[in-house]
Amino acid sequence: MIPPxxxxxxxxxxxxxxxxxxxxxxxxxxxxxxxxxxxxxxLTPTADPQPPVEKIPDTTSQGYLFRALPVSEELPRITRRGxxxxxxxxxxxxxxxxxxQSFEDYRRKFxxxxxxxxxRKLRRYAEHCGGTIPWKTYREPEEIREFFRHxxxxxxxxxxxxxxxxxxxxxxxxxxxAEALAAQQRLRAYVLFDGERPVSxxxxxxxxxxxxxxxxxxDPDYRRHSVGTVLHRLALEQLFQxxxxxxxxxxxxxxxxxxxxxxxxxxCANVYFLRRTSRNWLLIHAHHFMDSFSAWxxxxxxxxxxxxxxxxxxxxxx
Length: 318
Known about the structure:
Shape: globular
CATH superfamily of the largest domain: Gcn5-related N-acetyltransferase (GNAT)
Helix content: 25-40%
Largest sheet: 12 strands, mixed
Number of domains: 2
């Protein structure tokens, strides 16, 4: 048997929600052991992920979820593996940046045209701001509440929060957690300003030398200034100069922004191992059907030339 992707002791129990469809037709909560595979784990990509050999530690848990598991090829969505149903709803290129090189070496990965475009964005925003770009890095515990004050002002206006419910959390527990990370030098957070007005933010916690691209947002009034790109470019230059972290991890999902800045991509998958029960079989197939329907709808809108326009309208673009 192929070794398990991670030992079960590395997993944590959570109540995981399956969302049926992009329009949220239904959410089903399942108690599961969720295991976040990290770049620092250095796992070899596998062609046949296997469930852990240990029994599920919690009798109410329905199984395991391994996020960002490296795989060597495209895998079937639904298969049986022993007492489990293996379900792989998402396979994607996992993009990241190698921060161990010099910034000049990193810049050479870009074409001359791309380097010129990025410099032009920086120059134009500096001109907009009167000659210099006002931005700030937050890394010390005593700075964190100032960051959240500015970043939450942006997040409330961002499409990530208004439409996707994916804005930066602002509750007291999350802020205290951020302060604890900063005390351990495991947090880098950034805000871009226009004068005294915050217009973009980036929040990156770190684990074992890997910074995670966790939360970002920008003021839709500044979309034409590419303020998210400007802030990310400034933050990356500082991170390369700092030399403290090994990778910048873009996590799951694709996007032009990630392809632009990444130095590497590794095929990864989110792999579920669910108890082989009739209920879980129905849940998996319902989720698979809704995913397939959403993909068909997206492709149809794209073919009709409507997908890009709808996305622009949702983001408040002009």
